[in-house]
Each structure stands twice: as C-alpha cells, then as structure tokens.
Amino acid sequence: MIGVATVGAIVGVLLVGLVVLVRRPTDTRPVFRWSALAITVPVAASLTPFTVDDSGTAASYLLGVPVAAALLPVLAQRAGRLTLVADLVAALVLTGWGLLLGLGIGVAFLPAVILLIASAVGTWAPRPSTT
Q1: In this structure, are residues 91 and 109 in contact, taking their beta carbons and an 8 Å threshold?
Q2: Which of 14, 17, 40, 61 is the most buried (most CB within 10 A)?
Q3: Rounded CA gap, 102 and 11, in Å?
C-alpha cells in the first residue's frame, strides 16, 4: 500500500509539472502550493487504514503532521503574508517527517516536497513582463 501511495504521489507531481509546462500560468506558486496539498491529502487518506492497523491512535499525528504542513503554505497564501517562509517551513517539515518515517509511510510524503520547493524558488524568479 505504501508503494502505491508513493507511486501515486510521484505521478501527481509529474502531472503538475506537465500541466505547468503546457499551460504556462503567469504565477505558478499557487498552483504548486495547492497541488502539494492535493497530493498530500489523498496520500494520507490512502495510508490511514494501514497506519491505524500498525500504530493505532498515533496515526492521527503520523498522518496529521504532513497534512498540516502542506496546508500551511495555502493558508499563508490566502492571508497574503510570509508565503516564502511558509513554503520553506512546510518543505522542511515534510522532508524531516518523511525521513523520520522513511522506512514506513514517510517516503510517500516526499514527492510533495518538490512542489513546495518549486513554489519557494518561484518567489525569486523574475516575473514576466506585461508589455
């Protein structure tokens, strides 16, 4: 089940990259933030039965931390403040949590980190001219 969730997350990241390359939105950062959340939530949902069987009530924080981390940049974007910090913190938390749980469910959350890093890097990229 972990392998299926991980492959699904990787395919999701690749699809987001393909959509961004084809559609070329003017601001890719919101696309990356929302996509990271949209990938993390189904991964957590698909791993819930396995994690509950294995860890019982600890599944709430084992799966809740990555979802909360992926939600942070979206909330920061909605508030319009500190989006770069939120992107970097979320990427760090997801990476740390993924490595901490790396031999189990953690590896399935690592593909979403790519999108959060891309969103943070997009902050420094020059914006296209409107003229």
Answers
A1: no
A2: 40
A3: 19
Which CA distances in Å does 50 have to 3, 70, 99?
Answer: 12, 21, 19
Segment 82-120, tens digit of pLDDT:
888 888 999 999 989 888 887 778 888 888 888 888 888
Residue 33 has which token pair? 């933030």
pTM (whole model) above 0.85: no
CB burial of 105-122 (b: ≥16 within 10 Å; e: otherwise) equals bbbbbbbbbbbbbbbbeb
Query: Would you kindly state where each structural domain of the chain is located, as residue ranges?
Result: 2-124
Element (H, E) at 18: helix 2-23
DSSP per-residue letters across 84-129: HHHHHHHHHHHHHHHHHTTTTGGGGGTHHHHHHHHHHHHHHSPPPP
Q: How far apart are CA 107 and CA 130, in angstroms?
A: 41
Q: What is the DSSP letter of 27?
A: -
